[in-house]
Amino acid sequence: MDGMTLFLILIVPTIILGIYAQHKVGSTYNKWARVASRGRITGREAADAVMRKAGVTGVSIVETRGHLTDHYDPINKRLVLSSENYRGSSLAALGVAAHEAGHAIQHKVGYHALKFRMALVPVTNIASQLLPFVLIGGFLFQIFGLIKLGVLVYLVLTIFQLVTLPVEFDASRRAKQELVAIGILERDEMTGVNQTLNAAALTYVAAFVSSLAHLIYLFLLTRR
């Protein structure tokens, strides 16, 4: 099987999956960002309530620019929410904010998968920085050694993406559970939260599948 055939079989489907996942999360978020929660509580207030309920202290909630730039920073203990989710009271905003609060809870309780992912960050950053050189040197200039290095790079990236899956799924589970338990949302409002977080989860699945496909692709190239 030649390189082009391998590319068509392994890589092209993951590109399509990635495009679909990004479209899905965008369209789903936009849909539920237009539906306000009955309680009109903001994303910031929801995240704060979820963390307080779990006994999380010392975590600041800050606002940032950009669309869906929300994340939890475990190093600086900051929960960062985009303006639309920090100030918004939509079902999408509350779902995203509570999800990030779920990561803060994971950090507090010492969730093993999160600790493992944090430990992988330095080597993953190095792998990501090497990736352009691997792709350009390996494929454009046909430097075989860089293709072999690419196998190691994608092995690191694939492990990182694999560990990310339970971290993200667990954060969403905690978010969904607490939003109802605290009384921020009624059960019939959870449809918007569920769809928003499930669509976001698909992007992480797509990232893992893409990394795994590239790993297999480069490995098979080195065996030819």
Structural write-up:
By secondary structure, the protein is mainly alpha-helical. The protein has one domain. Helices cover 74% and strands 6% of the residues. It has helices at 3-33, 43-53, 83-86, 91-109, 112-140, 144-181, 190-223; strands at 60-64, 71-73, 78-82. The chain has a 3-stranded mixed sheet with strand order 1-3-2. α4 packs across α7 and α5 packs antiparallel against α6. The longest helix has 38 residues, at 144-181. It is elongated and about 60 Å long.
Arithmetic mean pLDDT: 95
Distance between the termini: 9 Å
- Biggest sheet architecture: 3 strands, mixed
* Alpha-beta classification: mainly alpha
Helix content: over 70%
| Overall outline | elongated
Fraction of residues in β-strands: 5-15%
Task: Quickly count the domains.
Answer: 1
Instruction: Compute the number of strand runs.
Output: 3
List segments where confidence is low: pLDDT < 50 over at least 5 consecutive residues. none
Which sequence of strands runs across the widest sheet? 1-3-2
The helix/strand order is HHEEEHHHHH
What's the gyration radius in Å? 20 Å
Specify the number of helices.
7
Short structural description:
The chain is mainly alpha-helical and about 220 residues long. The chain is built from seven helices and three strands; from the N terminus they run H-H-E-E-E-H-H-H-H-H.
Q: Which helices and strands appear, and what pairs or packs with what?
A:
Layout: H1 3-33, H2 43-53, E1 60-64, E2 71-73, E3 78-82, H3 83-86, H4 91-109, H5 112-140, H6 144-181, H7 190-223
Parallel strand pairs: 1-3
Antiparallel strand pairs: 2-3
Helix pairs in contact: 1-7, 2-4, 4-6, 4-7, 5-6, 6-7
